[in-house]
Design a protein that fits this description.
The protein is mainly β. The chain folds into four domains: 127 residues, Immunoglobulin-like; 107 residues, Immunoglobulin-like; 29 residues, no CATH class; 94 residues, Immunoglobulin-like, CATH 2.60.40. The protein has no helices and 27 strands. The protein has a four-stranded mixed beta sheet, with no helix packed on it. A four-stranded antiparallel beta sheet has the order 11-13-16-15, with no helix packed on it. Strands 12-18-17-14 form a four-stranded mixed beta sheet, with no helix packed on it. Strand 9 and strand 10 form a beta hairpin. One of its GO terms (cellular component) is cell-cell junction. This is Protocadherin-15-like isoform X2.
Length: 460
């Protein structure tokens, strides 16, 4: 007898023209398995049923019965979970199935006559094990950080970076559903749900803007988010959204005007005042800056000579001027005031006036012929203590016996003055007075420096 085979997606059916065939093909099963109860028999669509083609030519009393059985199946442990009633072809579930262990079964069902002449037929039975809703949804990350510009229009999607180039994807998964399918969970916000909304479907969800935001009013938002599958709820995750400032405000200065002092020793590039107002697009109202230049202590008092040498006679009286030292400091104000001090070499015989620089013999001192002194004199300006400048000079003194023929002396070695071009002829420019120890008459003469005879010195 010729046997015909009919194949399709889920079954292979053997047909015998004079015997029986499967009713409905392919056979398929799809059911939701509740691990807490056993639902039997399992519903198979279409029902497992083999039809005897000899039924029209045989009386019912002569028709043999049809026996059903599971011939083979995958995985090999199928027999632990399923059995097939041989006469009714009802599929029985023997024990609960864990979808985490098995996702589907493929069984081959055999039907044969109960008369010693099997003439079997076969069909494939595909069983899909659906997951029970026994696991809560979950988010892929515990914290989301998004960014939105305060100038963004309503409906704008929150971005994942400050450049606003990539949308912030929120992915909530449910192990009860395959990762490639939309889990259809509902995501809710615990706060600010009038300002932000989550797209309702899709594997990746997105936050969108419902109401305008203002960086100056609230620079950031923080809230929690949960996902629910209708039965179970995820652990909450944190969402932080930073509102990026847009150029919607005019820059302003804290003050209308500024006053400051600038010192003369400031170097090019040194910061005088830092002011911030322009944002590159909008411009502030102008402000006034008043700068006062203050002299810095950047000059050292300087003696005209590195050293001085002079003779002092034994008949010099205490208080008589031996020498007046003058150090010049180009600074102005207190920084330019110079004071003097003998540092060493005076042997307790000489003193110097702090302010005039005049060196005199101390009272009660008897000068000895042939004795010599080397006075170290320091000139110091009056700048701040940490910035004071100074220089030194040496005064060499030789003690000589009284000399009745000693020349007259000026109290100062150098005189300096300025003459206005408007000075009238005959006006007095400087009063110089020399002294002579013997009190002899003194005459005055301009020796050099006035080739055109512009100046004249009087004899009185």
């Amino acid at each position: 007898m010729l046997m015909q085979l009919l194949t399709c997606d889920h079954c292979v059916v053997a047909l015998f023209p004079d015997k029986f065939m499967w009713r409905g093909s392919p056979l398929a099963i799809c059911f939701l398995l509740n691990l807490q109860s056993r639902v039997n028999p399992v519903n198979v669509t279409p029902p497992i049923q083999a039809v005897d083609q000899d039924r029209n030519i045989q009386p019912p009393s002569d028709r043999p019965g049809i026996l059903h059985s599971i011939l083979i199946g995958k995985p090999a442990s199928y027999a632990e979970y399923f059995s097939l009633n041989r006469t009714t072809a009802e599929l029985q579930l023997l024990k609960p199935i864990s979808r985490e262990q098995y996702q589907h079964f493929d069984l081959v069902i055999k039907a044969e006559q109960d008369n010693g002449h099997p003439l079997p037929a076969f069909a494939n039975l595909h069983i899909e094990v659906l997951d029970e809703n026994n696991q809560a949804p979950y988010f892929q990350v515990a914290t989301y950080h998004g960014f939105i510009s305060e100038s963004a229009p309503l409906g704008t999607t929150i971005s994942s970076n400050a450049n606003l180039s990539t949308p912030l994807a929120i992915i909530a998964l449910d192990n009860d559903i395959e990762e490639t399918k939309d889990p259809m969970v509902r995501i809710s916000l615990d706060n600010y749900n009038s300002i932000f909304a989550v797209t309702p479907s899709g594997i990746a969800r997105y936050l969108t803007l419902l109401r305008p935001v203002d960086h100056e009013e609230q620079p950031s938002y923080a809230f929690t988010m949960t996902a629910s599958d209708g039965v179970q709820e995820s652990s909450p995750v944190t969402v932080n959204i930073t509102v990026i400032d847009a150029n919607d405000n005019t820059p302003t200065f804290p003050n209308v005007s500024y006053s400051l002092n600038v010192y003369t020793d400031m170097q090019p590039g040194d910061t005088i005042l830092q002011m911030t107002a322009s944002d590159g697009v909008q411009e502030s109202s102008p402000v006034t800056v008043n700068i006062t230049v203050i002299d810095a202590n950047d000059n050292t008092p300087t003696f005209p000579n590195v050293s001085y040498s002079l003779n002092v006679y034994t008949d010099m009286q205490p208080g008589d001027t031996i020498l007046q030292l003058t150090a010049v400091d180009a600074d102005e104000g207190p920084n330019g005031l110079v004071s003097y001090k003998i540092l060493a070499g005076d042997q307790g015989h000489f003193t110097i006036n702090d302010y005039t620089g005049i060196i005199t013999v101390l009272p009660g001192v008897n000068l000895t012929v042939g004795r010599s002194y080397a006075l170290t004199v320091r000139a110091t300006d009056n700048g701040p203590a940490s910035q004071r400048r100074s220089s030194i000079t040496t005064v060499y003194i030789e003690i000589l016996p009284p000399n009745n023929q000693s020349p007259p002396r000026f109290p100062k070695l150098i005189y300096s003055l300025e003459v206005s071009e408007a000075m009238r002829t005959g006006g007095t420019l400087l009063n110089m007075q020399a002294t002579d120890r013997e009190r002899d008459p003194i005459t005055y003469t301009i020796l050099r420096g006035d080739p055109n005879n512009v100046f004249e010195v009087s004899q009185k």
